[in-house]
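Shipment paperwork, digital attachment
Item: protein structure file
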Amino acid sequence: MTKIKETSTNFANKKALANECLEVYASNIIGGQWSLAICCYLINGKLRFGELKKCLPNITERMLTLQLRKLEANEIVKRTVYAEVPPRVEYELTPIGYKLKSIIKELESWGKKHKAQWYPIR
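Attachment content:
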């Protein structure tokens, strides 16, 4: 995951568009295949890093870490570290993160309809 240079035109355009359009702002927060997938699994409750990795077998550990940090920075996901040996870390959606549930369910419904229309089973 690369970071866009803050001095670039692309960064300025992305920031301006997010400021003007709340849908783009929201999409920037949960956009990307991994962020949304992580949220889909966390809707069902707390998961540890290894459990999330099992849910998403094609994601690298580095990418999972980066996506979890991004979601945590945007206050979508809460990370809880327990003072145990070995250390236990759990991830869960924050209250604002749980508000994504209806949106994710609507995206699922739309995805089913679109896939059935454009990619029928043969």
